[in-house]
Amino acid sequence: MATPKHHCTPSFIFLLFLPLLFHFNLGKGDDLQLNYYSQSCPNAEEIIKQEVTKLYDKHGNTAVSWIRNLFHDCMVKSCDASVLLETVKGRIESEKESPRSFGMRNFKYVNTIKDAVEKECPLTVSCADIVSLSARDGILMLGGPRIEMKTGRRDSDESYATVVEDYIPDHNDSISLVLSRFQSIGIDVEGTVALLGAHSVGRVHCINLVDRLYPTVDPTLDPNYADYLKGRCPTPNPDPMGVFYARNDRETPMILDNMYYKNLLGHKGLLTVDQQLVSDPTTYPYVENFATDNGYFHDQFARAVLLLSENNPLTGDQGEIRKDCRFVNSN
């Protein structure tokens, strides 16, 4: 396993702000299988892993982007790589244009991975599987758990830009709403709390946290931590595209570990949804458990990631295998 690095990341990761209002039965997770490409492209998973590793060595922040891609792709209807589609005038509006996609980047490196796979096996490995497998490998690069992930997803030939905000609420929504959305795709309370642990890595733009600092400091914030945040975000009206940001986890900012939960218990939750995990009696026991046992956190995180990655995939003759992850084949 690669040693986790302390790279600066380009933007935060609302990784999981989260799920579905409706449950669309586009496909079944049990239609996926381990080693799906063992006959059609035996080296596919190794190629993806090699590319993820090379990108991590050059740009450590890509590992965080792969996790966020998984959440944003799988939460909006299906794990089908719709999040990767670019706008095509008169035909497709990209999901990346949604306010909920603010700060997402490194999409160009998905194409780096896809190009490497295409050279080995043209039109065989889906972009949807690349999204899932790159997240799996990125988690490992960040010191997270090893996850055995199934494959066999196919790619959507349409974007769902008009409904992204229906599926992925704002970062200040209530924890009860967050829990109900995850439950709608089969992820329980413990799994939801574990998935929010992805906030252990990455950073938040000031525009998304100043409401806890101005005009008065949120009383649930540790005073010293609030001073740190004010130092990072010195104005209540920051430039949305500015470079100022704050980290959820200053101790191990690029390691996917349980320091996030320890910080929550110390009233150092960065976003409203983070701190609600402590104030809500439904989620608090899991915060305590994860803060105490990093191995247990990793186990539950892996379980929840698998459930997420198998949410309504396109399989069989549904969708297509895109040649270029940015465009449907007909383009």
TrEMBL record:
A single GO cellular-component term on record: extracellular region
Keywords: Biological rhythms, Calcium, Disulfide bond, Glycoprotein, Heme, Hydrogen peroxide, Iron, Metal-binding, Oxidoreductase, Peroxidase, Secreted, Signal
Residues binding Ca(2+) 2, per UniProt: 249, 252, 257
Top-level lineage group: Eukaryota
Keyword RNA-binding: no
Binding-site list for Ca(2+) 1: 73, 76, 80, 82
Homology family: Belongs to the peroxidase family. Classical plant (class III) peroxidase subfamily.
Name of the featured protein: Peroxidase
Species in which this protein is naturally found: Carpinus fangiana
